[in-house]
Amino acid sequence: MSSTRPSDVFRPDIPSPARMYDYYLGGRDHYPADREAAEKVIAAMPKGLVRTAARENRRFLGRAVRYLAAEAGIRQFLDIGAGLPTMGSVHEIAKGIAPESRIVYVDNDPIVIAHGREMLQGVDQTAIVQHDLREPEKILDDEWLRRTLAFDRPVAVLLVAILHFLSDDEDPRRVIDTLLAPLPPGSHLVVSHATADSFPELDEAIQVYRKATETAYNRTREEVAALLEGLPLVEPGLVWLPQWRPDADTGLVNDPGRSVCYAAVARKP
Question: For 103, which DSSP code?
Answer without folding.
Answer: E
